[in-house]
Design a protein that fits this description.
Largest interface: A-B, 61 and 53 residues
Oligomer: heterodimer
Strand content of chain A: 15-25%
Strand order of the largest sheet of chain B: 3-2-1-4-7-6-8-5
Order of helices and strands of chain B: HHHEHEEHEEHEEHHE
Structural class of chain B: alpha/beta
Radius of gyration of chain A: 20 Å
Shape of chain A: globular
Largest sheet of chain A: 7 strands, mixed
Number of helices of chain A: 10
Strand content of chain B: 5-15%
Number of strands of chain A: 11
Helix content of chain A: 40-55%
C-alpha cells in the first residue's frame, strides 16, 4: 500500500460518475471539470461506463486527460460494465462503482450535473462535525438550453421540498449528488445498489441507508451543486417508461415495508422507546394515524 | 383468566398479549419477507420473459435475413449459370486464362461471382453505444485571431493574474492557465502581480510583479495589462487567480475574439455558477463582461485603456463594457470557454437570474480614469 493509497483510505473521496452515451462527452467533460475544481483532496473519480469498447474507453481517457494532467491528487479510474443484461444498467453502474471504492467518503455525480468547488470540503466537514454517516446539502435545478457546443442557463429553481429524514423516508427530495457518505460508518451490506432498478435506484438505496445509520441535514441550506434539466428534453413518458416507473414505485413501497429502522434512527425520528422490527412503512403509518388523531381532536 | 381482578391473572394476560403481539409481528415480518420474495421472483420472471421475447424477435429477424440471403444466392447462381452458358463467356475463355497467368493467379476461381450481386445484409449489431468525436475536444481549433497565429511568435497571448492575497489554489490556477495557453497554440506566458510577500509555490516560469500595498485591484490589473502589451502580447486575458481555466477555454475565448478581429470585449463563462445575466445564444452579446476572466486585445487597450481605478467590484467591469459599447465594440460571452470560479461565484447581494447590469458610475471616489483611458 503506497502512501497515496493510505491517504486515500484515510480521508479520500471516491465519486462514482455514471456514463452511458458517448455522444454526451461534452457533458461528462463539464462534470469532470467540476470535480477537478474541488477544493477537497484527494479525490478518485470512478467513471462507470455502460458497455464501451476498448476504443471508446481510450477516446474518453484521451478527452479527459488534459484537465487531469495538472490536477494533483485527482485520479481517474475507468470501470466498464460489459454484460448485456440489464439493458439499462444505471443501478449496476452504481453497484460496480461502490464495490470499487476504497476511500473513506463516497459520493455520486451523474455525467450531466456539476458540483460547486466547495461541495466535498463542506460535506466532509459536516460528516466529521456531526458524526453522521451521511450528510446532505442542496443542489437546485438549473434549466438549460442546449445550443451548438454550449449550454445556456435560463432559470434556477428548488422544486424538491423536504427538511430532513422524516420527509426523505416519505418521498425523495435529495438528488443523487447532494450527499456524501462516510464508508467507515456504513455496513458494507448496505452499500450496494439493485441492478434491476433503472429508476429510483438511488432512493431505494437511501431508504436502506437512512433507516440504518444517522443522517445529517444541517447543510440543506447550502448549495453544493446543480441539477441540470435540459429545456425541451422532457422525461420519457411512454408506456414502457410508465411500466418501469410503476414497477420501481412498487419496489420502493415494498422496500419501505421490509426495511427495519435501527434503534438509533428511531430515536432521531422521535420514537421514545425503540420498537423491535419497526419498519419504515410502520413508522409512516403511525405518523399518519397520529396526524389523523390529532386532527380529529383538534390538536395543533 | 376470566377473573381480571386477580393480579396474577391480569399479569398473565398482559404477558400473553405481549407474546401474541410479538407473534403477530413475526408473522407480519414473515409475510413481508414472502412478499419481497414474490416481487423479486416476479421481476425475475418478467425479466426472463422479456429476454425470451427479445430472443424470439432476434430469431425471427435472423430467419428473415436467412431467407433473403438464400433468395439472393439462388438468383446469383441462376445468373452465373446463364453467364457460363452464354456464347460470349465461352469465346472469352482463352483470354481470361491468359490474364490469370499474367496476374500470377494459381488457378481459376471455383465459382465466379457476378459483381453486381449485392452483399448479403449484415445483421445490425446489438445496440452498443458508438463514440462520436467530441464536438468540443476533437473539432478543429478555431482559426487563431489576427496576430495570434502560433507561427508569428510563441508569446502573443498572456494570462494576467492580480492577487490581492488569500487566493486559494494559486498554483492550480497557474498550471491550468499554462496548459490552456499551450492548447491555444501560445507560449505559457503567465504574469502574476501581488502585494506584500511574494506567493510561495508558484511555478518559476511565472512572471512575478510586486505591487505597492495601497494599490487597488483595478490599478494592479491596469499595470499588468500595460506590462503584458509592452512585452508584445496581442491579447491579454485577465483572470481571477482563485479560478481555474478549462484546458480548452482560451482556445474558445480567442476564437470568439478572432471572429470580431480583436475588436470586442469577451468574457469566459463563469462556471459552475453561471452569472445570472443573460447572453444572446446567436450573437453571444451580453449586457456586460465580468472580470473573472476577460480577454482584452491590443486594439481594445490602445483605444479604450483599462479599468476605471475609481470603481470597485462589478461596477468596474460594467463601466469598461459600457465604454466599449459606446464605441460600437461588442461585449460578448464565450459560452464554451469555461472558467471555474471558487466559492459559489456569486457576489454579495447578486440577484438571481436577471439581465439588468448594476449601475456603473456610482461609488467613484476620485473621478479619475486609468492611465491611457480616454476621457
Amino acid at each position: 500500500v503506497t502512501a497515496a493509497e493510505e491517504a486515500h483510505r484515510r480521508s479520500g473521496v471516491d465519486v462514482i460518475v455514471r456514463f452511458h452515451d458517448p455522444s454526451r462527452l461534452d457533458d461528462l467533460n463539464r462534470a469532470i471539470f467540476s470535480l477537478v475544481g474541488q477544493r477537497y483532496r484527494p479525490i478518485r473519480i470512478l467513471l462507470a461506463l455502460q458497455r464501451f469498447d476498448a476504443g471508446q474507453r481510450e477516446h474518453i481517457r484521451a478527452a479527459l486527460a488534459p484537465m487531469l494532467s495538472w490536477a494533483e491528487d485527482v485520479e481517474l479510474v475507468v470501470l466498464n460494465f460489459d454484460e448485456s443484461w440489464p439493458a439499462d444498467a444505471r443501478g449496476k453502474l452504481l453497484d460496480i462503482g461502490a464495490a470499487s471504492a476504497t476511500g473513506r467518503y463516497l459520493g455520486i455525480l451523474d455525467y450531466d450535473d456539476v458540483l460547486l468547488p466547495h461541495a466535498y470540503e463542506q460535506l466532509v466537514g459536516r460528516l466529521k462535525a456531526s458524526g453522521a454517516a451521511v450528510a446532505f446539502a442542496r443542489t437546485p435545478v438549473v434549466k438549460v438550453e442546449r445550443h451548438d457546443r454550449f449550454f445556456r442557463a435560463t432559470e434556477r429553481a428548488q422544486p424538491f421540498s423536504g427538511y430532513g429524514l422524516c420527509d426523505l423516508l416519505v418521498e425523495n427530495f435529495c438528488p443523487i449528488h447532494s450527499y456524501l457518505l462516510d464508508r467507515h460508518l456504513v455496513d458494507p451490506g448496505i452499500l450496494r445498489f439493485d441492478p434491476d432498478l433503472s429508476m429510483e435506484e438511488d432512493y431505494e438505496f437511501l431508504i436502506r441507508l437512512c433507516a440504518n445509520v444517522r443522517s445529517d441535514f444541517a447543510l440543506l441550506g447550502l448549495e453544493v451543486g446543480f441539477y441540470f434539466q435540459e429545456v425541451g428534453r422532457e422525461d420519457d413518458d411512454g408506456p414502457e417508461a410508465q411500466r418501469r416507473a410503476s414497477l420501481a414505485r412498487a419496489f420502493v413501497g415494498l422496500r419501505r415495508s421490509i426495511t427495519i429502522l435501527s434503534p438509533d434512527v428511531q430515536r432521531v425520528l422521535g420514537v421514545e422507546e425503540a420498537v423491535p422490527n419497526l419498519t419504515v412503512q410502520d413508522w409512516i403509518d403511525g405518523v399518519i394515524r397520529k396526524g389523523e388523531t390529532e386532527r380529529m381532536f383538534g390538536l395543533p | 383468566l376470566s377473573k381480571d381482578s386477580d393480579p396474577d391473572n391480569a399479569q398473565l394476560k398482559r404477558g400473553l398479549e405481549k407474546e401474541i403481539e410479538l407473534l403477530r409481528r413475526d408473522r407480519d415480518a414473515a409475510q413481508l419477507r414472502l412478499l419481497g420474495r414474490r416481487l423479486t421472483d416476479a421481476m425475475a420472471w418478467r425479466r426472463s420473459e422479456e429476454r425470451l421475447d427479445d430472443m424470439r424477435q432476434a430469431l425471427a429477424a435472423a430467419q428473415d435475413q436467412l431467407a433473403g440471403t438464400r433468395d439472393q444466392l439462388a438468383e446469383a447462381r441462376r445468373r452465373i449459370e446463364q453467364m457460363e452458358a452464354s456464347t460470349s463467356w465461352r469465346i472469352t475463355a482463352p483470354l481470361r486464362a491468359v490474364m490469370r497467368r499474367l496476374r500470377g493467379d494459381a488457378g481459376p476461381p471455383a465459382v465466379a461471382v457476378a459483381t453486381d450481386v449485392p452483399p448479403p445484409p449484415v445483421a445490425a449489431p446489438a445496440a452498443l453505444p458508438t463514440v462520436s468525436p467530441s464536438p468540443r475536444l476533437d473539432r478543429p481549433r478555431e482559426a487563431p485571431p489576427p496576430g495570434l497565429d502560433p507561427a508569428e511568435g510563441p508569446s502573443r497571448v498572456a494570462v494576467l493574474l492580480a492577487s490581492t492575497g488569500g487566493a486559494l489554489g494559486l498554483d492550480r490556477c497557474v498550471a491550468s492557465a499554462q496548459l490552456a495557453l499551450r492548447r491555444a497554440g501560445s507560449a505559457p506566458d503567465v504574469a502574476l502581480s501581488y502585494r506584500g510577500e511574494p506567493p510561495l509555490q508558484v511555478d518559476k516560469a511565472v512572471r512575478l510583479i510586486p505591487m505597492e500595498d495601497g494599490f487597488s485591484l483595478a490599478r494592479m490589473q491596469n499595470l499588468l495589462l500595460a506590462d503584458g502589451f509592452a512585452r508584445g502580447a496581442e491579447v491579454c486575458v485577465i483572470a481571477d487567480p482563485a479560478g481555474l481555466f478549462h484546458p480548452d477555454s482560451l482556445c474558445a475565448l480567442l476564437g470568439v475574439l478572432a471572429s470580431h478581429h480583436g475588436r470586442a470585449l469577451v468574457e469566459a463563462l463563469r462556471f459552475p455558477h453561471a452569472h445570472p445575466k443573460a447572453f444572446d445564444p446567436a450573437t453571444l452579446e451580453t449586457a456586460w463582461a465580468g472580470g473573472h476572466c476577460l480577454a482584452i486585445s491590443r486594439p481594445f487597450f490602445d483605444t479604450l485603456g483599462g479599468f476605471d481605478e475609481g470603481l470597485c467590484g462589478s461596477r468596474r467591469d460594467v463601466e469598461l463594457s459600457q465604454r466599449a459599447k459606446g464605441l460600437g465594440w461588442p461585449v460578448l460571452t464565450a459560452p464554451h470557454a469555461l472558467f471555474l470560479v471558487d466559492g459559489n461565484g456569486a457576489e454579495p447581494g447578486e440577484p438571481a437570474w436577471t439581465i439588468e447590469p448594476p449601475a456603473a458610475g456610482s461609488k467613484r471616489d476620485s473621478g479619475g480614469r486609468a492611465a491611457g483611458v480616454p476621457a
